[in-house]
Batch of 2 targets.
Target 1
Amino acid sequence: MDVRDAVVVVTGGGSGIGAALARRFAREGARRVVVVDRDLAAAQGVADEIEEAGGAAVAELADVTDAAAVNGLVERTLARDGGIDLFCSNAGITTGAGVEDADGAWLRAFEVNVLAQVYAARAVLPSMLERGRGWLLNTASAAGLLTSPGDAPYAVTKHGSVALAEWLAVTYGGRGIGVSVLCPMGVATPLLMDPLAAGEPGARAVAASGEIITAEQVADVVVDGLARERFLILPHPQVGTFWAQKASDPDRWLAGLRRLLTDQ
């Protein structure tokens, strides 16, 4: 997937990884970057930066958990640009909840981390299939391959995000549709840094597992992974090693993670 001359949509594009992706795609020569966020001012700020740097961008306000809003976003983009080459379902949330917490945190996590990606695929796939090409990039997390101590809804829904990407790749990969899933570990965004500053054990365990990298470093790895047409994009390569260790000996892996959590 070459983003040069591509029309790219990035949800959660007003900050963090989404903003870094939007800026990097513009630098790579995207024909237009559609910066989507529930905070229009944040999205507009990123779009303005891209425009000032000589790129082409537009800001869009959308709630990605509203299927009608996602449909409208796609329809407006198709009407304006004629097609969508890359749709990045990047919006996501953490909760800090466990199984004992109220259902609201669980429902919200499923809405943002899984169903929003379902709505995006449902909205954009018909036009991609008609053109015979297109790419979906779903942001999950290392938690989607491993787990997330201290945040049960996040761990469960990020596993769902990975599973959805796998299903999409199997179902549509033979029809011209590429699929990638992004699974970073520790990234210096508020999703990690705020809980880390509060001393939450789960965030401390993530920080102890490897380097905390910048959102810009994630964007670099994404561009390379898309160019290589990789399904699994790992900004932290050790996540692949951890994943293999988990698969080969789950009991040992779980015991090691319990020790890591206890040490924090």
Note: The chain has ten helices and seven strands.
Target 2
Amino acid sequence: MHIGQLLIIGFDGTEMSPRLASLLTKIQPAGVILFARNITGAGQTHKLLRECQKLVATPLFTCVDLEGGTVDRFRNAMGSAPSPAEVFATGSRALFRKHGRVIGENCRAFGFNVDFAPVLDLAYEASRSVMSSRAVSDDPKQVVAYAREFLRGLGDAGVLGCGKHFPGLGEATLDTHHDLPSVDKPLRKLWDEDLVPYRSLRRELPVVMVSHAAFPAVTKNRTPASLSKKWITDILRKKIGYRGLICSDDLEMGGVLAAAPIEQAIEQVTIGHIRAGGDLGLICHQEDFILRAHESLIREAERDSRFARRAAESERRVLAFKKKTFDKTSAAGRRTPAPTSARVEKLTRRLWEFGEEMRLATFARTDTKKERA
């Protein structure tokens, strides 16, 4: 059993090191995730990801968070991408798709094949201070319209998208990076509002990311959704009928670690996510946490045959997904060459032009509204 296929891991540094090489060789993870701390330029990032792949036997999910706006890991390397809310304000589905295409082409140039975007949370007033311009609308149908086109744009560029943060942080008033938000909303209301994007896009989302918020009206306790069999297996898999990959939000976040005894927190939440029906545990920072989580998954599979079967099911799903998705004839499976300075300059220019096109469209829409008024 390749238990590392249940983990996506992050690390420090901007180049391969003996320590990182040892970690990748030992864990053999499903994927890696990079942040701004790992990225100084397109060529450097492409090389680092290529060297990571050389140490792992299966195709890697090379992941990044790039929504545009406040969540933009490439800002220092090639300029800022517009936020989802800014693009949504244009009202142009062509620009929604172009947003995904521009971001996707940049991701591919840097060597990434997975972008943890778009955000599907509804833009309710309650979460405005936390989500800001990451959420586009309080109307679920409008969220679907933006997300569908953004996903198509990513796909055009050969990049996989990820809907987040299931089942929805639209009414969460606390930041899951630090706290465990509690959304006291019944399932019927969630079904008709927050869950609409997941229901509508269930066949179009390659990956769904589950949040660390609690929904006590649904689970009857304060278990985070990321550790909840009710949410992951019963609702997302069975009731909604989602068949893609399910990953956790970062398992190092305060919101989920608070759900377990501190001395065993990372082990318990990693096992808990897989036991609940998740496929991929995301651990973004500490090497010690990654090693402990990996060892705990192995021990639990050896100790508990039921957990071993559950873990094996996700391993098969991950490997089958990779085989299908990274076929050499597919857009995501095609190998991208190291980016030249001319290529980076062209993409940087295209990003700036998209920003200008978006602003002009927003002004034109605003003027039209004024004339109608």
Note: The beta strands are 7-9, 31-34, 61-64, 66-68, 71-72, 114-115, 162-166, 207-210, 245-250, 280-283.
